[in-house]
Amino acid sequence: MTRTRFALTGTSEQDTKLTTTSSRGEGGTVMRIIVPLQGVVQGRGGLFLGSVIPCALFYFLQLYLKRHRSAPSTPPPPPKDAAASSYQPSSSEGQLPEVSVLSRSFSRIHPSPKSPGGPAYVSSRVNLVLKGGDSPYDIGLRKVSEDPYHEAGNPDGVIQLGLAENKLSLDLVRDWLAENAREAMLGGGRNGEELNIDGIASYQPFDGLMELKVAVAEFMSQVMEKAVSFNPSQIVLTAGATPAIEILSFCLADTGNAFLVPTPYYPCFDRDVKWRTGVEIIPVPCRSGDNFSLSITALDRAFNQAKKRGTKVRGIIISNPSNPVGNLLNRETLYGLLDFAREKNIHIVSNEIFAGSTHGNKEFVSMAEIIDLEDFDRNRVHIVYGLSKDLSLPGFRVGVIYSFNENVLAAAKKLTRFSSISAPSQRLLISMLSDTKFIQQFIDINRGRLRGMYVKFVAGLKQLGIECIKSNGGFYCWADMRGLIRSYSEKGELELWDKLLNVAKVNVTPGSSCHCIEPGWFRFCFTTLTQKDIPVVMERIRKISETCKYPS
Amino acid sequence: MTGPRSPEDYEPESQARKPAGATAMRLVVPLQGVVQGSGGLILGSLIPCALFYFFQLYVKRHRSPRSDSNPTLPSQSSSNLTELPRSSSRSNLSSRGSIGRVRVSSRASSIARPNDSPYYIGLDKVSEDAYDRFDNPNGIIQLGLSENRLCFDLIEKWLSENLKDSVIGSDGGYLSISGIVAYQPFDGLMELKGAMAGFMSQVMGGAVSFDPSQMVLTCGATPALEMLCFCLADPGNAFLVPTPYYPGFDRDMRWRTGVELIPVHCRRTDNFIISISALDQAFNQARKRGVKVRGILISNPANPVGNLLPRETLDSLLDFSQEKNIHIIADEIFAGSMHGTGEFVSMAEVLDSKDIDKTRIHIVYGLSKDLSLPGFRVGVIYSFNDSVLVAAKRLTRFSSISAPTQRLLTSMLSDTRFTRAYIETNKKRIREMHDLFVAGLKKLGIECALSSAGLYCWVDMSGLIPSYSEKGELDLWVKLLNIAKINVTPGSACHCIEPGWFRCCFTSLSEEDIPIVIERIRKVAETCKSSS
Fold this sequence. Notes:
Chain A is α/β, with parallel strands linked by helices. Chain A folds into 2 domains: 129-169 and 440-549, Aspartate Aminotransferase, domain 1 (Alpha-Beta Complex); 190-435, Type I PLP-dependent aspartate aminotransferase-like (Major domain) (Aspartate Aminotransferase, domain 2, 3-Layer(aba) Sandwich). Chain A has helices spanning 2-9, 13-22, 38-42, 46-70, 79-87, 95-109, 111-114, 125-131, 136-146, 170-186, 193-201, 210-223, 241-252, 269-274, 296-309, 331-344, 367-373, 406-415, 423-434, 436-463, 490-502, 533-549; strands spanning 159-160, 235-238, 258-263, 280-285, 313-319, 347-351, 381-386, 399-403, 467-468, 476-480, 506-507, 509-510, 521-525. In chain A, the strands form 3 sheets. A 7-stranded mixed sheet of chain A has the order 2-8-7-6-5-3-4, with helices on both faces. In chain A, strands 9-10-13-12 form a 4-stranded antiparallel sheet. The longest helix of chain A is centred in the last third of the chain and has 28 residues, at 436-463. The relative contact order of chain A is 0.11. By secondary structure, chain B is α/β, with parallel strands linked by helices. Chain B folds into 2 domains: 112-150 and 420-530, Aspartate Aminotransferase, domain 1 (Alpha-Beta Complex), CATH 3.90.1150; 171-415, 3-Layer(aba) Sandwich (Aspartate Aminotransferase, domain 2), CATH 3.40.640.10. Chain B contains 20 helices and 13 strands. Chain B has helices at residues 6-17, 32-36, 40-69, 73-78, 80-96, 106-112, 118-128, 152-168, 174-181, 190-203, 221-232, 249-254, 276-289, 311-324, 347-352, 386-395, 403-414, 416-443, 470-482, 513-531, and strands at residues 141-142, 215-218, 238-243, 260-265, 293-299, 327-331, 361-366, 379-383, 447-448, 456-460, 486-487, 489-490, 501-505. In chain B, helix 15 (347-352) links the parallel strand 6 and strand 7 (361-366). The longest helix of chain B has 30 residues, at 40-69. Mean pLDDT of chain B is 83; it is low at 1-29 and 64-98. Classes of the chains: A alpha/beta, B alpha/beta. At the A-B interface, helix 2, helix 3, helix 4, helix 5 and helix 6 of A face helix 1, helix 2, helix 3, helix 4 and helix 5 of B. Chain B: Belongs to the class-I pyridoxal-phosphate-dependent aminotransferase family. Chain B: Residues 141-521 form the Aminotransferase class I/classII large domain.
């Protein structure tokens, strides 16, 4: 049939159009001109070209189809094809092989579902999730959950220093709950009883109750020492900061886009930002020489490299107070970041979940405060917060998106259908957060205890000759154990981590899990301990550090 | 953009394939031969154009499934390599202009758009002006949300007796406080899974028992569905869904996953029960379009019709899925909200009695309907597939249930005396409301499809619509919403192929409201009849 078409093309312009578009000529050829690439064949190229060109075309099409089918999630790579077909000479035929390949590819799909005994496949993207659970961070957590240390019950168990959880002030929360839980959940006698059950059992707005938003806004500004006020209508509540980050990643970037993230960063960003969204993280290394503080030059370099690779950078994700280092971003850096974001026209996601857990004497500055003072374009700034750290309620799963961008708020509100907070917990928190006397007391006492533990823990490490980066916030310290690793490499670091976990039985987070570029750094979370546990931990680390110093 | 690459690129390729012919090359212009031939310049330019046109056509068709679930992808991907550098330079440019507005992702902007489905428009409207017998008697009455308020008194009574102990424990000790405020497994407490398994089997009349280790708890059935969709299908793949179906599926299954739903139409002549031949036809059509079908999504009891899938249908669904090697997601969230005489058969029960590869079966459940606790946000994935379970457990980090709620529910569901009484009373009350409501409609000459479960009935108002079309149906829906001030769900929102059907949820009403609703419908019905 191809021949026919070509035979006809010779005659006139109209004919060509007609036949090529109908794409299904009847085969009534009588002409001498029966070879597909008539023109070429009659030209200098001769028979060879006439056969090679369609072959090549066909080859490219197959290549295209194959790639297209094997990885449906990645965007189809047409360039080769486009190249081949757009310029391909005589090939109105080019389009014909295409048709034939198409039907063949179907027949190829065909047999696989027919085969009766085949297992039911899961999606290929979920393989990423299935493979994702084996980082040292996860292995350590699993180990602890199998054999947790208990002073009396299991003194040989693994001590948890790998999870940023604060258990220092649970007694305060417990006392409050014991006194108020019932009234908080069902409400007092003021409203009719029926109204109260209605408020927890029936459908509530997915993005959180307005009362809770008001209370959270108040709490956030209290935690940040009244330097900023937050507008409840810019708040979206989610089931933890984890989905808050994922929702922002969905809203700010498309599949294949990227975020710049200064390293070392919180190990779970890799899941929260990337897993389901198809978004990339580009690590921007910070170094011990700068006290792991962020430099705009490094950001700029990473941005340009990404651009060269063809990756679109849609934003920067920062943690302030940073996790795992625990330092604070100062005002100048925040201004620098904003300028950078504006210059590149990208977003800033500022994770301020440890804002209230500062223990040093440096001042915490929220991105919201900078935005308030300056008349920047605010649409690009999004703050993530939560009650898991500052109110030590990770079990409640309460996260906050605070954004100045209408579109992001609208989309995030709709997406909270997948991550909403249980109404009884919301009611309970409304009462708890509205009890300002309790909250103020909690913040003060908690800060005092946090500082006490930090000082003790860092002093303990110092006695062993292990220095920590000077930090001002967070439940952890960032310890320099470069002197204890056998080889200055990721391998050496993981060997030490393995010894700490299996011999000393303390679970810590190695820097490589946080994408730290320099080996030998470890994150120690000290807030799940009691004061009495510190000597035990130090003793265990000491034993390891002694064996490590010997060989080197 | 493509020109410079091609000659050098394909030449060696062709040489490689046919090394024999080493012809003296004079081929400098791509279409040299043609150009020099009789067609001349015109052909030389026309042919590549036509070629390119067909190529684009092909690419477009090949990708169309994805574009409809996510309108942003095509432009993005079709331009992949050729346009990328250009697009990045474009973003660069706008950033230089100092007041460039920062853009959100294209998938977010499609989600952020105002609702266009009548289902959500109606819900929004009610939330602005909700009916209240005393405070707002002219407000809109909600018949569009399947929520059960008939048994709140039972729940309230239980809570007032047990709340404090169930949340913090009776001794208020250190251990129990750390059990609610500290990090818990994201996929739910084992105690709650155990209690949930017991409750599910109780709800289903003890016909099946559920294994807590095959269970993953999520914050609502909504994320349970989305999670399964993530686990079973890749972007561009599809699920077959018998229509009419629950309007929320379009959001739950498609929004973030890029998966397509292929409606498989059921008709009133079959009592809206799915036929395997229709499924087969839809499967083959999808295959012809190049769309890979990864599973079937059924709801049983069906939402919005309220009928039950008979054992034989479940049986043949299993065979069908086996034959095509696809998954089945069975949404059984209304399993305990029965009001008729039909027998509910769970997919898990059919599976028990059959020698079949179970790894393709996934059941979704939740407490929003059967225990009328939608505010608690508790959903269940019950799967026989280990990979799906492992992946879903990891994904629950994004959708986990607040621990106080879990503690509370653990004691509530473990109190089997309470749950048994609750289930019985609830069924009785739904039946009474159903009978009252259907009788009221019947007096107006409006019939409902036969149903035995659910918090709604599926009402045939095809006699009242001005034209037998989707437009006629939506006209009537607008009248009901704005004149009669009742919010119902039109069949078109559920992708029903026959116009004139409406879903009316009656369980958020009280008995006294029914005459008011019927009266409001009567007024509209009269104007419709007289005008026609």
